[in-house]
């Protein structure tokens, strides 16, 4: 139908090219994420090899998560982009049906998390505590992720115990049997002032002794609140911003679904009109 003139087609060029460019951006973004995910996975496994023992080992491997999300976005972007360009109703249908399923899943998870917020909070806390804290020094992805959160959210640890969570890490735990130089310390990202020796250079021992029971200056040395509680407090204090982010994330999905469905309907109308005008050819 794409070779018909604008006077002989029901397909709006505005809708068609909006769907095309909308999905082209996501198609390219998905390709970029796949490339970065593969690169990160290969580079990470040059220095660190982790045996997969549970589904959490995959879920919390950031390079794998990035790769999987990239593949999903790439496939969706491809189907929407090519579906619009070639006016292919099968690809367009696949695109908007998957987008609807994703949107419904997001809404469902959001409602469940709100209704059972205490249970959801505890589940997330347990997953992070069991899969990030023990692997901090051994998994470069986990280390970078935790450091980024602790530095930017101004928190330490995961649970309501806050900084005490680091006793569960074999390098930081504060016991007489731990001979590590990091014993009784916390990661440098917990420190209120990281460059205690040289300006601009984090001191990995700036949290030394913070896990000792008698540490007198702990609250001025490190952040003591757990990151889950800190993030919830930040969200409550910035509800308009959180709402804006949710809306900004939701609207493009709805626009993509509506435009793809509209374009599919226009193509089907064009096909039906062509079949009415050429019944013999349509019957072949």
What does this 3D model show about the protein?
With 284 residues, this protein is mainly alpha-helical. It has a domain at 10-121 and 236-278. It has helices at 13-47, 55-59, 62-85, 89-115, 117-131, 140-153, 218-221, 227-237, 239-277, 279-283.
Brief description of this entry?
It is found in: Cell junction, Adherens junction; Cell membrane; Cytoplasm; Membrane. This is Tetraspanin. With 284 residues, this protein is mostly helical.
* Largest beta-sheet details: none
Average of per-residue pLDDT values = 86
Provide the succession of SSEs: HHHHHHHHHH
Helix-strand category: mainly alpha
Number of strand segments = 0
Number of helical elements: 10
Q: Helices and strands in order, then pairings?
A:
Blueprint: H1 13-47, H2 55-59, H3 62-85, H4 89-115, H5 117-131, H6 140-153, H7 218-221, H8 227-237, H9 239-277, H10 279-283
Helix pairs in contact: 1-3, 1-9, 3-4, 4-5, 4-9
Features:
disordered N terminus, mainly alpha, 10 helices, 284 residues
């Amino acid at each position: 139908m794409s070779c018909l003139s604008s006077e002989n087609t029901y397909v709006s060029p505005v809708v068609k090219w909006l769907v095309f460019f909308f999905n082209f951006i996501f198609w390219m973004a998905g390709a970029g994420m796949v490339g970065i995910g593969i690169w990160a996975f290969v580079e990470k496994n040059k220095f660190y090899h982790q045996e997969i023992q549970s589904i959490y080992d995959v879920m919390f491997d950031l390079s794998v998560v990035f790769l999987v999300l990239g593949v999903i976005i790439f496939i969706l972007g491809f189907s929407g982009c090519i579906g619009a360009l070639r006016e292919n109703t099968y690809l367009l249908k696949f695109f908007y049906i998957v987008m609807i399923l994703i949107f419904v899943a997001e809404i469902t998870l959001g409602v469940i998390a709100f209704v059972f917020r205490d249970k959801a909070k505890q589940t997330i806390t347990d997953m992070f505590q069991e899969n990030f804290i023990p692997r901090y020094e051994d998994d470069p992805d986990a280390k970078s992720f935790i450091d980024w959160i602790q530095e930017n959210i101004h928190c330490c640890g995961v649970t309501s115990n806050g900084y005490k969570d680091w006793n569960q890490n074999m390098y930081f735990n504060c016991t007489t049997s731990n001979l590590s130089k990091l014993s009784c310390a916390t990661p440098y990202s917990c420190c209120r002032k990281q460059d205690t020796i040289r300006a601009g250079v984090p001191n990995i021992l700036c949290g030394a002794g913070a896990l000792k029971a008698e540490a007198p200056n702990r609250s001025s040395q490190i952040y003591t609140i757990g990151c889950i509680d800190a993030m919830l407090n930040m969200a409550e204090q910035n509800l308009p911003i959180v709402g804006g982010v949710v809306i900004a994330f939701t609207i493009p999905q709805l626009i993509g679904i509506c435009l793809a469905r509209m374009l599919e309907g226009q193509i089907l109308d064009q096909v039906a009109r062509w079949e009415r005008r050429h019944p013999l050819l349509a019957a072949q």
